[in-house]
Write a structure and sequence with these properties.
- The chain is mostly beta strands.
- Helix content is about 0%, strand content about 55%.
- The strands form 2 sheets. Strands 2, 4, 5, 6, 9, 10 and 11 form a 7-stranded mixed beta sheet that branches.
């Protein structure tokens, strides 16, 4: 069974940085695309960033462009989300996902940014 395990969330002050990790239980070249969504209480789910596994092309939500960077480490079967210059509005639960013939999801990791 495919598993995605997220880590790296936590509490940080505004302007700080965090790096989220998403470790897959299988080689990430099994997937076409991986990325991160986030959802805060009472808000719609937002697609934050995606990466095409074969080629590395990336895409970002306008709200995080220039601050967040998604990357992959094929040898570690892991996708990362480097988050810099964090703002209170980035506070959310962040979910990793992976797409092949179906979708897979992680359990979510809480990111809290204090002002």
């Amino acid at each position: 069974q495919v598993q995605l395990v997220e880590s790296g969330g936590g509490l940080v002050q505004a302007g700080g940085s965090l790096r989220l990790s998403c470790a897959a239980s299988i080689g990430i070249f099994s997937f076409n695309r991986m990325g991160w969504y986030r959802q805060a209480p009472g808000k719609q789910r937002e697609l934050v960033a995606t990466i095409i596994i074969d080629g590395g092309s990336t895409n970002y939500a306008d709200s995080v462009k220039g601050r967040f960077t998604i990357s992959r480490d094929n040898a570690k079967n892991t996708v990362y989300l480097q988050m810099n210059d964090l703002k209170p509005e980035d506070t959310s639960v962040y979910y990793c996902f992976a797409l092949s013939s179906r979708s897979y999801w992680g359990q979510g990791t809480q990111v809290t940014v204090s002002s």
